[in-house]
Specification:
Blueprint lengths: L1 E5 L2 H17 L8 E5 L3 H18 L9 E10 L9 E3 L3 E4 L15 H15 L3 H23 L9 E4 L3 H13 L5 E2 L2 E3 L7 H11 L3 E3 L2 H11 L3 E9 L16 H9 L5 H34 L7
Parallel strand pairs: 1-2, 1-3, 3-10, 4-7, 5-8, 8-9
Antiparallel strand pairs: 3-9, 4-10, 5-6
Helix pairs in contact: 1-9, 2-7, 5-9
Length: about 325
C-alpha cells in the first residue's frame, strides 16, 4: 500500500484528482492501492498524525505485491537561487537544525541579516553594557548542555555538530528518478532543511543557504523521515518550489497558525495585499500541477515495477 501524505489539502488535492482521472482513463488497477492523508503543518502535527498512520500501517498484513510505503508531496521554499516556482525537488538528505540557539529572524527590507544583528546588539548593549558578556556565558552553558544531551543519544556525534540529517529510502528514490525520466519530467536533487517556522525573508534564506548548503526549506520532512525510520517504513519526500530564494513571502499567506483559509479571509479585509497574494497563488498552482504530474508518474511506475516478473537467474 502506497500512502501519499501532505501537510495541507492544497498540496494533496491535485495529486488525488490526477490519480483518480488516470485510473478512469487507464483501467486495470494501475492506480489502485493508494491512500491519501493530510498530516498537518509542523512537528507537533506530524508527531500526532504520522505516528497514528504508521501504527495503522504496521498492523496491516504484509503484501509483497504492494508493500507499505510513505510518499510526502508538498510545497517548499527555495533557497537555491536557480530554483523557480513549480520546480520539483528530490532531497538526498532531510536536514534539521540541532542548535536551538540559532533562531530565524525577520529582517527589515533593505537590510542584510548581519546588519540587522549588529543593530539589535548595539541597541541591547546601550541598555545593558554587561549584556554581551552574560549572553556569551549563557550560550556556552546552553551549548555544552545540548551537546551532552545529543551525545548521550548518539556517542558518535561530533561535539560541534549543528545539523542532524536523515536520508530517503534508496529504492523509492531510484523509482522517483526512473518515473521522472520515463515521463519526460525533471527534478532538482538538493538537500532540504526542516525548520519550525515560515522562512519568508530573502536575507534569512540566503543565510540558511550560505551556512548549510541546502536548497529548499520546509516544516515536515525531517520529522516524518525520523518516524518512518523508527517504524521501518520506506519514506520519500518530493516537493515543488512555491517561493524563490529572492522572494519575500507574506506571513499572512499561510497565517501564523498555518491556516490558508484564514489567510484568504484576512487578505479580503486588506485589499492592498491582493496583488502580492495573487502572485503567490499563481505560483501555488504551478507547484500543484508539478506535484500532480509527478504523483501519476510515480504511482504508474511503482505499479509496473511491482507487477513485473522477476528476472530469470543465469
Amino acid at each position: 500500500m502506497l500512502t501519499i501524505i501532505a501537510a495541507m489539502e492544497e498540496e494533496l488535492a491535485p495529486a488525488r484528482t490526477a490519480l483518480g482521472k488516470a485510473s478512469v482513463d487507464q483501467p486495470g488497477g494501475v492506480f489502485l492501492s493508494v491512500d491519501f492523508r493530510v498530516i498537518g503543518i509542523g512537528r507537533e502535527k506530524v508527531d500526532v498524525n504520522v505516528k497514528d498512520l504508521l501504527r495503522t500501517l504496521r498492523q496491516e498484513p504484509a503484501n509483497p505485491e504492494s508493500p507499505s510505503e510513505l510518499l510526502l508531496l508538498g510545497f517548499a521554499g527555495g533557497l537555491e537561487p536557480s530554483l523557480a516556482p513549480g520546480d520539483l525537488t528530490l532531497a538526498g538528505r532531510y536536514c534539521h537544525l540541532r542548535d536551538l540557539g540559532q533562531r530565524l529572524m525577520r529582517v527589515p527590507d533593505g537590510m542584510s541579516l548581519d546588519e540587522f544583528r549588529r543593530r539589535l546588539m548595539a541597541e541591547a548593549e546601550a541598555n545593558d553594557p554587561n549584556l554581551l558578556r552574560r549572553a556569551v556565558l549563557k550560550f556556552e552553558r546552553f551549548q555544552q548542555r545540548m551537546t551532552g544531551h545529543w551525545q548521550a543519544k548518539d556517542p558518535s556525534l561530533p561535539s560541534r555538530s549543528v545539523l542532524k540529517s536523515l536520508e530517503p529510502d534508496p529504492g523509492m528514490r531510484q523509482r522517483a528518478r526512473d518515473s521522472l525520466n520515463g515521463e519526460g519530467l525533471t527534478a532538482v536533487e538538493t538537500d532540504s532543511m526542516t525548520v519550525a517556522q515560515l522562512v519568508g525573508s530573502p536575507d534569512t534564506k540566503r543565510e540558511l543557504r550560505r551556512q548549510h548548503q541546502v536548497g529548499t526549506v520546509n516544516m515536515e520532512d525531517y520529522w516524518v523521515a525520523r518516524l518512518a525510520a523508527q517504524a521501518n517504513i520506506p519514506f520519500l519526500s518530493v516537493r515543488a518550489v512555491l517561493d524563490t530564494a529572492s522572494q519575500e513571502v507574506p506571513a499572512y499567506f499561510v497565517g501564523m497558525s498555518g491556516r490558508p483559509g484564514w489567510a484568504a479571509l484576512n487578505t479580503v479585509a486588506h485589499a492592498w495585499r491582493i496583488p502580492k497574494t495573487l502572485g503567490v497563488m499563481g505560483q501555488m498552482r504551478q507547484a500543484q500541477a508539478s506535484l500532480a504530474r509527478f504523483a501519476v508518474a510515480f504511482v504508474k511506475h511503482r505499479r509496473e515495477a511491482m507487477s513485473a516478473p522477476p528476472a530469470a537467474a543465469t
